[in-house]
Amino acid sequence: MEKEKARLLELRKTIDELSYQYYTLDKPTMTDYEYDMLYRELETIEKNHPDWVTPDSPTQRVGSKISGGFEKYTHDRPMLSMGDVFNDQELMEFDQRVRSDLGGEELEYIVELKIDGLAVNLIYENGQFIRGVTRGDGRVGEDVTNNVRTIRTIPLHINSTSPHMEIRGEVYMPIQAFEQLNAQRRDDELEPFANPRNAAAGSLRQLDPRITAQRKLAFFAYAIGGTVGIDIPSQEALLKDLEAFHFQVNQEYRKFSTMTDVIAFIHSWDDRRDKLPYATDGMVVKVNSFAQQARLGNTVKIPRWAIAYKFPPEQARTKVLNISVSLGRTGVLTPAADLKPVRLAGTVVKRATLHNEDYIREKDIRIGDTIVLHKSGDIIPKITMVEKEKRPADAVPYDMSSQVCPVCGEPIASVNGSVDLYCTNDACPAKTVNRIIHFASKACMDIKGLGPQIVQDLVDNRLISNPVDLYWLYEDESELIDMYGEKTAKKLLTAIENSKTQNADRVLKGLGYRLIGGHVARALFTQCKATDGNLLGLSVLYVDNIKDCNIPGFSDAIYAALDAMLSDPMFKREVTALYKAGVNLDYHAPTASANGSAEDAVSLSGKTFVITGTLPTMSREEAKTFIEAHGGKVTGSVSKKTSYLVAGEAAGSKLDKANALGIPVLDEAGLKAMVNG
After folding, report:
1. Which of the pair, 460 or 415, is modelled with greater confidence?
2. Residue 595 included in any domain
3. How distant is the alpha carbon of residue 530 from its chain centre?
4. What is the DSSP letter of 191?
5. I need a labelling partner for 551 at 20 to 30 A (CA). Which of 4, 269, 409, 579 fits?
6. Which residues are catalytic?
7. Residues 292, 102: contact at Cβ < 8 Å?
8. Are residues 306 and 320 in the same domain?
9. How far, in Å, CA of 539 to CA of 576, rounded?
10. What phi-psi label fits residue 6: left (phi over 0), alpha (psi between -120 and 50 degrees) or beta?
11. 117 and 255 in one domain?
12. CB-CB neighbours of 272 under 10 Å
């Protein structure tokens, strides 16, 4: 028993250190597979001895769901806001006030990047993390402890004997995680987050910590609140102490003795802040000495010893040439502003989404308007204002609701009180075409050669009216030959036949029901036993059967979408028809290739890949499946953590970034050689 307890303590210490090296220092010293084996061993011991489990164990990062919202918590010491300045002159005036209030004595400044995230207060007692609280109004915040526990760069235990210590900093979402999250949300037909800060705030306030854990949040520590038995002389010393406690500290801070040098350092970021792996909206200038900070004091809202310099937003001015509306496969109408091309933050912007009619009305955007775009901290360009004084005299308000579907001419309407407008015609040709294009896409059934134009031709000639009809096209082979020639027709029919072997999650995603993307589909088959891992099994369920499975990340909106799908007679008819057509409806977890050995299946374990460009024989989805089947991981963006870039033709900017970071580049043959030798 004692030996097993000692092993438990050893495992906790080892796993904490490995997590610190991986998540905080970005310098992993062990493969993911080796780490997973240690973690599993710890889980087994704690399962056998539940009375040994403590809150600071690495296994306790995800707590139970929060019911009834978040409880309020009063900070021991207020979390003050920063005063803002926007130019060099205001910085010099701040410097003059500080020096005057200190009687002209010598001083030093610490200058730090201002992370665009969510301020949080972490409370430790005798070195153990006990509570995480949002800033709130500065005096009272929300207790988000269970969610904070999921953030890997926050230690659950620190080497301190202080009975009470408050560590303050910023919860943020790295750019790469933000892009991956938005890609997933677009895949699931959810509105993407506007910027990393909004994504971080929304993720930290989830009632289910398991959702927060999936969002890959991080934390920079930079301040201390109420403490007992701690004596730290300066901001510089504090940052070094925080590092020693294994917190992630932003390394871009600098110390200066003159405001002239501070200003020069701030402006050194003018042309390079967009290259950071996290969003930042300015820099914070702090008096270094805590004794001098105490003498300078605070106002009711802000400290007199610190100031935030806000970066000017990247903006561009252009004109709205037109407002166009596109129709998605689910029938939702999405307006967009067609713009006079303008360069903004390194890219040429020609269009800007207008989201919905409410957005257009709120901002009063009209054709002919001069508008201002910006990308300050935002990845997606958006209209920040309309210069109404430049509006043409004949510009009139844009009214979406009075219009009809731009394709079929049938009425449009909102559904269940949604702000979105939908085409009400189930037989709308555009809805039909878009749905079949989606079904045949690489990410779904991957029917090679079945592009948008051919789908349009087949619908126009009444050969198909839904995805299932594709599998009966062989009966119209002669007509296909007349349309495209024998060679093209036979290739198309062969591609359709080959698609029958796709996995069930891709079939379900391909059917194109709102919010039922790849992630949701895979979760249904892997985490809901009632489906029996089969699309036919899913089609006979009720939404309550799925709710009973308590699948992490499934929101009320997803359950509502599932209810609508499962209640739709067309869904059941199409699933049955696909089965009769010989389409595979079973879900199989990715496995190694047929010529790969069992040993090969983990040969890519611990390695992270990014895929770009066009590969000779594999689609990107096939390459992703191949890598995952052999133990590797695929992400969407190149970073320091990327092990290899797999590059095909027209690789573009990802190849440039990989070369700049010194990341090895593989072609398709090189990737296969890693597995097969």
Report:
1. 460
2. no
3. 30
4. P
5. 579
6. 114
7. yes
8. no
9. 9
10. alpha
11. yes
12. 8
Residue 124: is its pLDDT beyond 90? yes
551 and 491, same structural domain? no
AA letter at 439: F
Q: How far is residue 641's CA from residue 663's CA, in Å, rounded to a whole number?
A: 9
Q: Compute how many other C-beta atoms are within 10 angstroms of the C-beta atom of residue 381.
A: 21
Q: How many CA atoms lie within 13 A of 304 on its CB side?
A: 16
Domain identity same for 246 and 386: no
* Residue 485, amino acid: G
CATH of the domain at 543: 1.10.150.20
The H-or-E segment that residue 222 falls in is strand 218-227
Beta carbons of 372 and 349 less than 8 angstroms apart: no
16 class by beta-carbon count within 10 Å (0-12 exposed, 13-18 middle, 19+ buried):
middle
What's the CA gap between 312 and 625, in Å, rounded? 43
Domain that residue 508 falls in: 504-580
In a shared domain, residues 122 and 264: yes
The answer to whether residue 73 sits within a structural domain is no
Coil/strand/helix, residue 129: strand
Q: Specify the number of domains making up the chain.
A: 6
Q: Going along 345-411, which residue ranges are E strands? A: 347-353, 370-374, 382-386
CB atoms within 10 A of CB 391: 14
Task: Find all residues with CB under 8 Å of 144, minimum gap 6, and list them.
Answer: 70, 120, 132, 133, 134, 204, 205
Between the ranges 312-326, 462-476, 546-560, where is the mean pLDDT highest?
A: 462-476
Which residue is listed with tokens 């009973």? Answer: 548
Residue 416 pLDDT level (bands cut at 50, 70, 90): low
